[in-house]
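Hi everyone, sorry if this is the wrong subforum. Our group has a chain we'd like a structural model of before ordering constructs, and none of us has done structure prediction before. Sequence below.
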Amino acid sequence: MPILLSSRRAANSRPVRVVRAGATEGLPEPVKAWAAAMRFSGEAGQVLVAPGEGGATAAALLGLGKPARGAVGEAALPLLFGALAGKLPAGSWHIEAGEAGETGAAAGDPTLRALAMRLGGYRFSRYKAGAGGKEDEPAEVFAGEGADIAEADRLAEAVFLTRDLINTPTNDLGPAELEAAARKLAAEFSAEIRVTTGDDLLAANFPMIHAVGRASADAPRLIDFSWGAADAPKVTLVGKGVCFDTGGLDIKPSSSMLLMKKDMGGAANVLGLARLVMASGLAVRLRVLIPAVENSISASAFRPGDVLTSRKGKTVEIGNTDAEGRLVLADALSLADEEAPEILIDMATLTGAARVALGPDVPPFYTADAGFAASLAETSVAVADPVWQLPLWQPYAENLASKIADINNVTSDGFAGSITAALFLEGFVERARTWAHFDVYGWRPKASPIGPVGGEAQAIRALYAILKQRFAG
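Answer:
Right subforum, don't worry. Here is the predicted structure as tokens:
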């Protein structure tokens, strides 16, 4: 059951008390006794509703766990408030800070608390029987003084858009449906959109997007929409839109295909970030580019050993058809770079190597702009949207060498796969003032207070915060 955020505390509001692990001493005696009876210990994300006199609800308890180590852990504590979604009975509630061992800082940013409560109520129920029926009356929660409810709602809607797109299976979200989702978003904010489809990609000089997607019955396409004043600073977002990845002729094993509906997670995250930029009215000229394809298998599939000529003119030997995302991104990045944007960001579910290095929760990013990297690292901690910079280690670029073309799309040694993928992409960007590449996973493999297992927005809240600092209207 989702939570309804309130901008004011109701007269009959009941408290949500936050409790550190093992620190229930400061609770009122009846509530303390109930917590003991229910074995509530204050572990992170633990929720308990305590009854009062006459069966009425006296309070709810939210466990914050043990004191977190370092700034990263403390900054993420407000996300635990997402655990309240679906646990609070209907009626009015408010967050009561400073109780039962809570240190004050743990309550955190009230807007982030509010966002967490919205995110925790997310469910993807499109294919569930009975979904859409009458919901129970929601709990209404006052997140605290200073909570920007409108901002929390904007952030939540962007995350939900991203999650919904990733969670939708490919039979309902191929390249054509991804285009429809982009068109819907563009129309909502009166953005200009154009789409280049099928063989028109060849005429428009997007040969690698065409090559990767031509084997599918759903034609490949490049989605391109723009929003904002033409003379505003140019911010361009490029998202990998591989709606399903079989691996091509270098076919994946079946176990590796199970989550390949999420291989358009870069595009989904870019659309979520674009929604935030437009909904907030940032003073930028926003451009969104999504190469939308399905890496399928048929007589027209591109092959290992083929040499493709990119939009930039650089030739690429295909060492592996399962490294197709960087090919479609390269053509889109080349187009984006032609107008020398101030900021160029690409997002892609690009390599398994990134997950081996940092796991599913922390996307690596790459940039040569040290100031941007430092600002993003700091901001990602503040908004509890973790990212981690990995190096564009130039000596590894020689591992992409080809004997017959300008570059190979993969290395032969298997080392530093996420870094070499980033180096491949870097070769198609020359004019952008700041370029950053994000190798996101786009999936939450374990349920958490802010969401169930499934598609996930990653890095877009941190990126939005950076853009908002720089370009707030």
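For your construct planning: The two ends are 35 Å apart (CA to CA). The longest strand covers residues 285-295.
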